[in-house]
Amino acid sequence: MATIVFCSINKTAQATARRCWTPHLKELASAVGHRVPLSFTHSPLLLPATRWCSRGTGVRFMSHGTSGRAASGRARRGALALSGAAAAAAAAAVVGFLANANHFQRAEMATRVSQSAEEKEADKEGGILERCLGFMSPPVTDVSVLQETKAEMRTRMEMLIMETQAEFCRALEKVDGGTFKVDRWERKEGGGGISCVMQDGKVFEKAGVNVSVVFGNLTEEAARQMRSRGKVLKGKDGKLPFCAMGVSSVIHPKNPHIPTVHFNYRYFEVEEEDGTKQWWFGGGTDLTPIYINKEDAFHFHNTLKEACDKHHPQYYPDFKKWCDRYFYIRHRGETRGIGGIFFDDLDSPSQEEVFNFVKSCAHTVVPCYLPIVYKHLNDSFTAEEKDWQQVRRGRYVEFNLVYDRGVKFGLATPGSRIESILMSLPLTARWEYMHEPVEGTQEAEMMEVLKNPKEWV
């Protein structure tokens, strides 16, 4: 059962909060559980680095500097950090911390959700408050700001990534029996994030599910990367305000017969000199098994294909190929795993259609992976199989540190948190000099698949 802690500066405010919210909280309490310790780590957002165009299919995803723009017309949400709602939240957080550090975030949430009857009425359409109570932590952006901007894409995407984090974390906790440590962080340049990490569990050696919502001005290096992909960016006085947000996860199981999984879904906005905005989405989900299992591969890819097919028949085949190309360890001549889907710079046919596609992909995270986990939960394994897992993890590390755009961008971006950027790395790995699997073994079969990607559906 969830515990809702009301923390306020005086008894009058506390009584008001209780009177406004007790009826609603009773209905929601049975479905809500917040475990939010202090501190935070965060996983970097992958910045787009390639353009994609599918000719002859009627599908086109390519940024030219004008597509995907939306009129601005609103002040930056970061400026609302000093609003009355934020001040009240901060005061309540201090009281909660002094009472019990473990209840810090519960107290903060209680303060953020107390609102007037008029505000509650205005929120009925979007259900922002009820949705926030289901998250692993209060969202990065103040709840009052989310309510005021609930129709805007920035708000809708933040709500989606928070829900994806909560859904996946709770599914993993159920199978593992452990709990995630929930950390919050703030970026002095603007924004922050929420990281959920579980280490040394019964099933998962390391599991991380991170959300970040950051804003500020693009660095010259980031702007140069985007222009190199054909984006026409015209800043004001040399500045390009941006907002980037996403959810990212990497799961490293203990059992070598349970695959590693990774997913990332993100949204990016850049405001230009005349106030118009360029926007695009990116993301994907991919599987890295230690031993090949054709049934698992079919289930994983077919789940992703069904989600893609709801939006366009060319999405899955093209994004599957893109995934195989992206997660490729060039100096080894092998892919990192058996792929999945990967896409970037999606800014057409419309913002609404692309968002709905990303939402469908995010909703596959649990059904494409958890059945595979349960299937192999009690599989026995040998010391030799564990050693092979360690070798394959070494290759995972090599890709992330040498090629992954998100890691490289994060390490070079001011204000990034190194601890969270390296969250994707396993607790343990192994590098054997000139390691080659014995011909005819399951390990050799796995290597054949990695060197020659297959069609699974």
The topology string of helices and strands comes to HEEHHHHHHEEEHEEEHHEEEHHHHHH
CATH class of the domain at 41-74 and 188-451: Alpha Beta
Radius of gyration: 22 Å
What structural category arises from helix and sheet content? alpha+beta
What is the makeup of the main sheet?
7 strands, antiparallel
CATH 4th-level superfamily of the domain at 41-74 and 188-451: Coproporphyrinogen III oxidase, aerobic
Strand content: 15-25%
Q: Helical percent range?
A: 40-55%
Low-confidence spans? 1-125
Task: Walk me through the topology.
Elements: H1 11-29, E1 52-54, E2 59-61, H2 84-99, H3 104-113, H4 117-122, H5 128-132, H6 143-148, H7 153-176, E3 181-186, E4 191-199, E5 204-217, H8 220-228, E6 241-253, E7 260-271, E8 277-288, H9 294-309, H10 315-326, E9 328-329, E10 334-335, E11 339-346, H11 351-362, H12 365-375, H13 383-402, H14 405-412, H15 418-421, H16 442-451
Antiparallel strand pairs: 1-2, 3-4, 4-5, 5-6, 6-7, 7-8, 8-11, 9-10
Description:
The chain has a domain of 298 residues: oxygen-dependent coproporphyrinogen oxidase, CATH 3.40.1500. The strands form 3 sheets. A 7-stranded antiparallel beta sheet has the order 3-4-5-6-7-8-11. Strands 1-2 form a two-stranded antiparallel ribbon. The N terminus is likely disordered. The protein is α+β, with helices and mostly antiparallel strands and 457 residues long.
What's a quick, concise take on this entry?
Pfam families: Coprogen_oxidas. This protein has 16 helices and 11 strands.
List key phrases describing it:
two-stranded antiparallel ribbon, 16 helices, globular, about 450 residues
